[in-house]
Amino acid sequence: MDWDDLRIFLAVARMESLSGAGRRLGLDASTVGRRVARLEQAVGATLFAKTPQGYVLTAEGGRLVAPAEAAEKAAVAAGEATRRETGISGQLRIGAPDGCANYLLPQVARRMCEAHPGLEIQIVALPRVVNLSKREADMAIAVSPPDTGRLTVQRLTEYHLHLAAHEDYLHAHPPISGLADLHGHRMIGYIPDMIFDRELDYLSETGVETAAITSNSVSVQMQAIRAAAGLGIVHDFAIPFAPGVRKVLPDLISLTRSFWLLRHADDRASRRLTLLAEELAQGIRQEVARLEGLYQTKGP
């Protein structure tokens, strides 16, 4: 049985589509389909059932997943055993909420690529938790530790958030001296039914029940605040990227959250991924501290 066919089989099982697997592997969908058919012929069984929702594993396909993942793990270990120790190369896909992906990971990725010229980093910004079981990413950053799944979980760092607005908005609207004053102002926040983690329910901290402008993206929220459209809760580490945005009622509204690094449990044996996870964790900690300190130094 060809390992490369098993690799394609796992990609289809995880992505639940030929096109999705092809994008993950850099192949066209027709090639993926032919390779799956070849594997099915080799094992003498149908491995997938095509449904309106995508390609679903049959009972025979489900039984092949564990052996295929064992082969995948062995292939990764073999590659690491023969790789030169002078640097880490290959692809690393990191899933993250868009605040982290937009304001932290680009700088962290730059430093990691400078340290490892052969490394290719892919940043996947999703308004939900990345599914590591389906190998949507090699590792993921989350805003709360998961309750289920075969994952290793590492707390990275705390970060802080405050109510903020652009100075143009504040100059054009009534002054804000207490929480009661917020009810006369336009608020910006998350679309309520698209809050995928309870840690993102920031608006409740203000005492205001509804927002006039909402988005499932924290970056879109920040752009609305930069456009002087209203007030919203923002990451302190994002404020240096938004000239003119300053904190409002910082002594009354102050939130603390944490980032968590998630990895698939089977990846603990991978020295390469462990080293990259350590560098990523250190980079996130340093960048949060740098940016939060930068705002404190420059002030509003």
TrEMBL record:
Q: Which domain of life is it from?
A: Bacteria
Residues annotated as domain HTH lysR-type: 1-58
The answer to whether UniProt assigns keyword DNA-binding to this entry is yes
| Molecular-function annotations in GO | DNA binding; DNA-binding transcription factor activity
- Pfam families assigned: HTH_1, LysR_substrate
The residues forming a coiled coil are: none
Query: Which family would the database say this protein is a member of?
Result: Belongs to the LysR transcriptional regulatory family.
Q: Which PANTHER family match?
A: TRANSCRIPTIONAL REGULATOR (PTHR30579), TRANSCRIPTIONAL REGULATORY PROTEIN (PTHR30579:SF3)
Name the record gives this protein: LysR family transcriptional regulator
